[in-house]
Amino acid sequence: MAKNKTVLVTGASGFVGGALARHLAGQGMTVRALVRDRAKAAYIDGVPGVELVDGDLGHELSLRKAVQGCAQVYHVAAALGGSPDHQTQVNVEGTRLLAAAAAQAGVQRFVHVSSIAIYGFGRSLPDVITEDTPPAPSNYAYTITKRAAEGVLRLIAAQTGMAYSIIRPGMIYGPRSNPWTVQMSALATRFPVIPFIGDGRGHIAAVHIDDVVSMCALAGEHPSAAGQAFNCAADPGVTWRDFLTAYAKHSGRSGRWLGIPTGLVRLFMPLVKLTAPAGSIVKDMPAVLDHHLRPVVYSNEKARRVLGWQPHWPIEDGLTDAAAWLASR
Ligand SMILES: NC(=O)c1ccc[n+]([C@@H]2O[C@H](COP(=O)([O-])OP(=O)(O)OC[C@H]3O[C@@H](n4cnc5c(N)ncnc54)[C@H](OP(=O)(O)O)[C@@H]3O)[C@@H](O)[C@H]2O)c1
């Protein structure tokens, strides 16, 4: 990893961006950390090598200023919820403004954090999803806008010659992960049993935060990463049952499973779907349910082959690390 470079990390007040900003600074880079609200940036504020800069994906001038003199841009910021219009503004139009500003400023590599959500959900998807798998149709605004953001970046890169790489993480767990560590551990430990839909033999595409960070860092530097997208999720897959049971066991629980019959859930689905807000994940039911009941693997063979990336954390050890962080809070 080349030292003494100035790089920009967006979403630096968030979970992934904060971890990435710290990692890159630790590698000797000067990290400009784009934040909207400094009060939310305590995790990176004052870290040697990290400089907070104010900016918003909706404010073009702030982005133009932020990218000046940067060798690389790590675009992590996104809206992970909110109305479809809001997600379009932040995820699609924000990426457009940032990528255009980066290209104009002569940024050498634009690393875009996307998501495996771009593939969508459903029976039409194969059991092993590679970077070439065509996405399934979706009504879920996050999926749609993250997919569109990739398209916008590719277009700007084609028009300007800016080199880019796309990382598509799965469910990112580990220290500071709210949905996949704090919430999942709560689900696994709130009751004497783990209540979950079905037998839990379907897969969760889990990945430890450190492994996402290391893949992003490699994608920023590796010559063969240019113009490429990389999945970043458990391969081989891990079952929901093993994932949740590990959290339960780390908390001293039995990890006994209470499978809610899938037929019962399907019965209520039409009503739930009807009343769900536009663009919510529920609008993609029952495809989402079917997907999570299947042993789907998002192959990371390409990242291993092209980048020489290796996940640091086997799932059992990664969950032990996550549990240790939970216990330390
Ligand atoms: N977490 C996962 O499991 C997961 C899985 C796959 C992909 N991803 C992707 O990873 C990236 C980071 O996710 P995360 O989990 O770290 O989310 P997060 O903790 O919610 O962080 C999102 C970041 O984006 C910033 N942001 C939102 N709107 C912005 C705007 N208009 N201008 C500038 N910054 C804005 C937020 O700033 P504020 O602090 O000011 O709100 C925050 O720093 C996203 O691109 C997401 O799609 C995450």
Detail the topology: elements first, then pairings.
Blueprint: E1 6-9, H1 15-26, E2 30-35, E3 50-54, H2 60-67, E4 72-75, H3 84-104, E5 109-113, E6 128-129, H4 141-160, E7 163-169, E8 171-173, H5 178-189, E9 193-197, E10 203-204, E11 206-208, H6 209-221, E12 228-232, E13 238-239, H7 240-250, E14 256-260, H8 262-275, H9 287-293, E15 297-298, H10 301-307, H11 315-328
Parallel strand pairs: 1-2, 1-4, 2-3, 4-5, 5-7, 6-15, 7-12, 8-11, 9-14
Antiparallel strand pairs: 10-13
Helix pairs in contact: 1-6, 2-3, 3-4, 5-7, 7-11
The structure holds NADP nicotinamide-adenine-dinucleotide phosphate (NAP).
The percent range for helix content is: 40-55%
Distance between the first and last residues' Cα? 32 Å
* CATH architecture descriptor of the domain at 6-172 and 205-237 and 296-313: 3-Layer(aba) Sandwich
Number of strands: 15
Average of pLDDT: 97
Q: Which spans have pLDDT < 50 for at least 5 consecutive residues? A: none
Task: List the helices and strands in order.
Answer: EHEEHEHEEHEEHEEEHEEHEHHEHH
Question: Largest sheet, if any?
Answer: 7 strands, parallel
Adjacency order of strands in the biggest sheet = 3-2-1-4-5-7-12
CATH topology of the domain at 6-172 and 205-237 and 296-313: Rossmann fold
Q: How would the global form be characterised?
A: globular
Task: Supply the key terms.
329 residues, Rossmann fold, 7-stranded parallel sheet, two-stranded parallel sheet, 15 strands, 18% strand, binds NADP nicotinamide-adenine-dinucleotide phosphate
Structural description of this entry:
It is a single chain. This protein is an alpha/beta fold. The protein has a domain at 6-172 and 205-237 and 296-313: Rossmann fold (3-Layer(aba) Sandwich), CATH 3.40.50. Helix content is 42%, strand content 18%. The protein has eleven helices and 15 strands. The protein has helices at 15-26, 60-67, 84-104, 141-160, 178-189, 209-221, 240-250, 262-275, 287-293, 301-307, 315-328, and strands at residues 6-9, 30-35, 50-54, 72-75, 109-113, 128-129, 163-169, 171-173, 193-197, 203-204, 206-208, 228-232, 238-239, 256-260, 297-298. The strands form five sheets. It has a seven-stranded parallel sheet, sandwiched between helices. A two-stranded parallel ribbon has the order 6-15. Strand 4 (72-75), helix 3 and strand 5 (109-113) form a beta-alpha-beta unit. Helix 1 (15-26) crosses helix 6, helix 2 (60-67) runs parallel beside helix 3 and helix 3 packs parallel to helix 4. The chain is globular and about 55 Å long. 46% of the residues are buried. Bound molecules: NADP nicotinamide-adenine-dinucleotide phosphate. NADP nicotinamide-adenine-dinucleotide phosphate binds at residues 10-11, 13-17, 36-37, 40, 56-58, 76-80, 90, 94, 113, 115, 146, 169, 171-172, 180.
